[in-house]
Amino acid sequence: MIQSIQTTLDTLLKDHAEHLDTRAILIDHDAISRAPEVLKAHFDTTSPWLLVVDENTWNVAGEKLSQELDKQDISWSKFALSDHPDHPHPVCDDNTIAQLKDHLTSHTFGAVIAVGSGTINDVVKKATSLIDTPCACVATAPSMNGFTSKIAAVLSKGVKTTIPAQAPLVVIADLDVMMESPERMIASGLGDLISKPVSNADWQLSALLNDTFHSEEAMVVIELGAKMLDNVAPTLQHKDPNAMAGLLGSLMVSGLAMSIAGSSSPASGGEHLISHYMDMTGYAHLLPFDFHGCQVGVGTLTTALFYEKLFAMDPASIDIDAAKARLASWDEHDALLKERFGVLHHAVREHAINAYPSEEDIERRLGRLQQNWDEVKTKVSRTLRTSDSIEQELRAAHGPVRFSDLGLTRERATEAVVYSKDIRNRYTILHLVWELGLLEQWADEALEKLF
Ligand SMILES: [Zn+2]
User: Fold this and answer.
1) Would 256 be classed as within a structural domain?
2) CB hemisphere CA count around 218 (13 angstroms)
3) Is residue 244 part of a domain?
4) For the domain that residue 327 is a member of, what is the CATH number?
5) 213 inside domain
6) How far, in Å, CA of 273 to CA of 47, rounded?
7) Same domain, 294 and 392
8) What is the distance in A from the centroid of ligand 1 to the CA of 369?
C-alpha cells in the first residue's frame, strides 16, 4: 500500500513536471533518516541549510533532522518563527513572511527547509519565492493539503487569502512522526480533503455559469487522490501506517492538482470561505477557531446540504426578475459590509467589489441555470456526495461535525455561512444561493442540523 502510493506520486511528478515545482516526495517509515540523501540530490551542500521551525516542530521532527544532517556533515542553522502577539503559535501573516525574508536575504543558505505543516510551510513557500530561492518541507503533521501546492494561505491585512507562492522542491513525510500527530490534526487533514466533492462542484458550477477555467487534466489527478482515501477514515486514528500513507498521499496529490490547475479552485470552494471567515474573525476579535481542515469539514457539510437543497428545487421557481430587483447598489452593499466586518471592512472590500454582480451577471447565471438545469445538475453532481455520507466519514476519523464542536456560537456560525461569500472573488454555491435570495433561510435550516 505504502509502496503503491509512492509509485503513484513518483509517476505524477514525472508526468506533470511542466506544471510542478515539486521534484521529489517521500512518504515512508523513518523517512527523516533518509531525508539528507533525498535533499542532497536537489540542494547545494557547500552552504549551510536553514531549518525553519517553531518550538513544537523542532521537538517533533527538527531535532531528529538536525542529527541526521550532522551525520552527513551538512552544516545547518535554525530559524524559529516567533509567535503571533495574541496567540501562542506563529501565524502566516505579512509580518512573519517579512521576518523570514529578511533573514534569508542577509545570509546564504544551500537549502531552506520548512519543518512543519500548514503555517511554517506557507511562510517558507512565500518568503523563499519572494527571493527566488528553492525550498523543501519536512512535514510534521498530516493536517492540510498545501504541502505541494503553489499557493500560500496568508492572513494579509487581516483577510485570510491564498496567494501565489512556489511549492517545495522536496517534501518528506515520516509516517512514524505522522502517526504520533494529535488526533485533531489528523482529523483536520481528512477534513481538508473531504471538501473535494463540493469544491469540485463549485469549480464546475462556476465554469458552467461564468465560463471560468476548468481543467480535466486536474480532475483526473484529483480522482487518483480520492482513491487513496478509500477506507482510510475508520483506521486513521489507530496508528495504521497504511491509512496514514493513504491520507498523506491524498494530501500530496490534492496539492499537485492545485498546481496543475493553476489555482486552488479544485480544492477550495464555498466550504473554504466559511473556514477562512472563522480564521479572520478569530484573529481580529480573539474568538475561538479550530484547525483549518476541521473547519473545512464542517463547512463542507453545509455546502453539501446546500447542493442537496438546490437540486431538489423546481427550476421553474427561479425568478430572475425578482433576483435582479433584489440586487442592491454597490454602495448599499458596501455599507452592509462595513456593518458586518467592522475593522476588517477595508480589506474585505477589495475582494468583495470584484465579486459583486451586475444585473447582467445575475441574468446570465440564473438564466443559464434555469435553461440548462439538467446539464448543470448532471455535470455539477458528478463529484458530489451527500452531507450525511461525508459526516459519517468525518465521524469515523473522530473529526468535528458541528459548528459548536469548533467553539463557535450559533450567531457566529450563521455569520460564517452568510457573510463569507464576500471575502473572495470566486463564484461558489454560497454566491448562487445568495443570488437566489435563499442564503439566510438555507443557512438557518442547515444550522438546525449542523450547530
Ligand atoms: Zn484547505
Assistant:
1) no
2) 24
3) no
4) 1.20.1090
5) no
6) 41
7) yes
8) 28
CA distances from 417 to 90, 380, 384, 440 (A): 27, 21, 19, 8
Domain count, the chain: 2
CA end-to-end span of the chain, whole Å? 37
How many angstroms does the Cα of residue 254 sit away from the middle of ligand 1? 10
Residues 325-378 have pLDDT tens digits of 999 999 999 999 999 999 999 999 999 999 999 999 999 999 999 999 999 999
Q: Are 439 and 217 in contact (CB under 8 A)?
A: no
Range of the domain at 146: 2-181
Measured in Å, residue 294 CA sits from the centre of ligand 1 at 10
pTM for this entry: 0.94
Cα(257) to ligand 1 centroid in Å equals: 13
d(CA 167, CA 148): 5
CA–CA distance, 402 with 413 (Å, rounded to integer): 10
Q: Do residues 343 and 413 make contact, with C-beta atoms less than 8 angstroms apart? A: no
Q: Tell me the per-residue pLDDT of 124-181, one tens digit each, with 9 for 90 and over.
A: 999 999 999 999 999 999 999 999 999 999 998 888 888 999 999 999 999 999 999 9
